[in-house]
Amino acid sequence: GMANKWFIVAKVTRGSDGKVLYEHESKPRRAVDEDIDHDVSYAMQQVVQVGTGRNASALGRPAAGKTGTATNASDDVSSSWFVGYTPQVATAVMYVRGKGNEALDGGYLDSYYGGTYPAKTWAAIMSGVLEGMPTESFPPPAWVDGDAPTEGHAPAPSGNGGNKKKRDKNRGNDEQPSVAPAPEPVPTLPPEPPPVVPTTPGPPTPPATP
Questions:
Q1: What is the mean pLDDT of the chain?
Q2: Considering the entire predicted model, what is its pTM?
């Protein structure tokens, strides 16, 4: 959870005698609580171990990271990336073409998603960067507990989510379709029974004569 200001030049030495003329001094500051950092790293390790970034596990040491894929208006993959880290080093790999909106694959090849070429490239680069460094493990998760926010904005749709599929034609329109409320039922009364008309009995029948 520590952050440093970015820099380009780490050290300047004089060629004749190797004297150090300049050396960058980092001044880290805490940006994220330690427990939160441990839980986030635990979640990002799952991406590498069993998620979309499994190709990064070729590094052969504990690693965490996240894949990413973007598509253009034609639903072609226009950029993809993998941002990953070990306890010692963090690296980002991004694939993009032209001005960033051109198709990377040109033929709907799934290998250009963030979990494929970018993750494989990341593992290859980090293998060289970490050569000679000891293998370190991430701290165990802290399992920070808390209530989910009850107010706020829901996240925007993430697009294809790692699987190629055509997007809805109305994507980008934030207006949600309105659903007309169902009409309230009107109570109906049971039909009234027909009126009963009283009948007058006929004259009595005289008894038969023996």
A1: 79
A2: 0.64
